[in-house]
Amino acid sequence: MNILGLFWEWFSDSANWQGTDGIPTRLLEHVWYSGLSLLIAAAIGLPLGLLTGHTGRGGFVAASLANFARALPTLGIVILVVLIYGVGLGPVLTALIALAVPPVLVNTYEGIRNVDADIKDAARGMGMTGPEVLFKVEIPAAMPLILLGLRTAAIQIVATATVAAYVSLGGLGRYIFDGFQRQDYKAVVGGSVLVVLLAVIVAGIFLALRRLLVPAGVRQSGRVA
Amino acid sequence: MALVDGEPLIRWNWVADHLQDFVDLTGEHLFLSLAPVVLGLLISIPLGVASIRWSWLYPPVFAGANLLYAIPSLALFMLMLDLTGLNSRWTAIVPLTGYTLAVLVPNVVDGLRQVPASVRQAATAMGFGTWRRLIQVELPIAVPVIMAGLRVATVSSISLVSVAVLVGQGGLGQLFTDGAQREFPTPIIAGIVLTIILAFAADLALVTAQRLLTPWARSRKGTA
Questions:
Q1: Contact (Cβ atoms closer than 8 angstroms) between residue A78 and residue A164
Q2: pLDDT higher than threshold 60 for residue B114
Q3: Where does B12-213 sit in CATH, by number?
């Protein structure tokens, strides 16, 4: 209960709602960095995943890439990138995107790859062309895994954007690191709880997307990883 | 923060001088990342079994696991401080155990669910009681699926634990903050490389363990 009390005290303090370090600004920054990174990661990962999945080539490379990406310590990567390329939005966002592409790519690949061969044969038998099979059959059937990949990437991005405040990125992570530095645990709790809430909202959005985008015929239990 | 002009990415003599530190930090890193995996496995098996036995239990457990997985580790570590403090290893271990559970519980449930009904009936017909059937028949058949989750959980835990250096418990993560404070890339690169090596070594160990645990999968392909 202590945490909720601290959070409320911090959250209801009007001083925390103003200026460049105010809650609206920081929240917007976090959403902006994360949304932009996810969009770019999806723009890279989805076509590559669709292509490799549809043609069946490069699967081993894709799977190894995902394994490798999972093993990378994000804090170290973010610090190294900033040390080499300097403080600035560009380098940090590039790192966020690079870390988010593998889950999108691999899940899309796996999803398309694992579409029942009989269904694909049937689609071809009905006279569909390659792209038609991909867009009308494979993508809808692979939608649960495609969304899972995007969800994993989104979670990863929101978390890494928080950590990246260590190397002076804005966003909600600022409250955590600045508060820690000032030994102001109230601000640390405030930032942390807001990050948790943002993560819950992201999870909720993907739950809603699942309802909207996954055809009723292919709904099945999703996995976390 | 920027690199001083002329500073090489790696100073090999610094690496050579700090080998003992690497060994100590690696040991600490392994403990902090593997203890949650072991705890997570010990909790997720009974939780998974219970979710199968009482099916109403699974939707809330699954939703909880999904939600927990979405929460950034830094926020959880910071909130844990309130309960455990800066000098406790539990600050790192408890949240990481949560992530392990989030990955493992669905895999345990999926693994147990895919045990063919005919196999279960055969075991019952042979006089196996509920518990003996679970331990000697159902869990062994679920090993490949559980192992897949365990591999993901282990690799994630090894890479994630370095964030806990920000609450004073990060194993190799100390190399990252050390390098950042001194604007010195060598320890950062050493830390990244060691983390990746640890993750792959642990993964290889699990693959080997799986081969030993499921000898039948080697002779008859297709059961795995």
A1: yes
A2: yes
A3: 1.10.3720.10
